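Recall that a protein's primary structure is simply its ordered list of amino acids. Everything else, from secondary elements to tertiary packing, is in principle encoded there. The following example makes that idea concrete.
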Amino acid sequence: MRIDLHAHSTASDGTDTPAELVRNAAGAGLDVVALTDHDTVRGYGEALAALPAGLTLVTGAELSCRLDGVGVHMLAYLFDPEEPELARERELVRDDRTPRAQAMIGKLRDLGVDVTWEQVAGIAGDGSVGRPHIATALVELGVVPTVSDAFTPDWLADGGRAYAEKHELDPFEAVRLVKAAGGVTVLAHPAAVKRGRCVSESAIADMAAAGLDGIEVDHMDHDTDTRARMRGLASDLGLLTTGSSDYHGSRKTCRLGEYTTDPEIYGEITRRATGAFPVPGAGGRER
């Protein structure tokens, strides 16, 4: 089995629609894909309707969190999407995305970058506007060569010159909320230093003690040494280890299935979940 547990659609900051995403996942030879848009499950219905035969869809979301000033991304799988407390927190984060993006655009304009809200909103389309959309605008304007180059202290990285804060969950609260909704939590790319500051290993240990299920080890932003170190930490803490592409369509260079999760780990994730269950495709409608 080939299992990719981290992928984004146009419901947040990917470039594939949810329907395109599941078709592309099947085309990439995946058996299982998780739709993990930022702070939303809005794309799940479309993905499910288009789900090809032979591909299983996992409900998920990537929750925006912050601990001691450090951004933390928490992957949540197979939770009840209707559970009111978690749904309310996701809505608070999404509602804060627009004023946060507008604040970042204002900072960029103060730095002499001729970016506009209309440009960024057009790039985001129906998705929840976020930093990748602003980064794409910077690429279009020739300010940076790639989206990844926008996520530096000079521009959009945490604490960068054009960075602005938004409402974000405490990661310990995120673990509690997801657990209460019957889901499973995995800390995304925990040591991706190229993105900015990362939480400490002691903080990860504290999250494990609070119920964190796993950490994403095999990821494009982790080099070989980092993967080995994270795998050792996971072993010491009794955490599951996953591998995922963090696919964003054409917005990033990673490919669906570039990194994958061991089937035994996936099986354990599904065994722990009680809020929702993976859905096997039986041949979806074309869109």
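The first strand starts at residue 3 and ends at 7. The chain has a mean pLDDT of 94.
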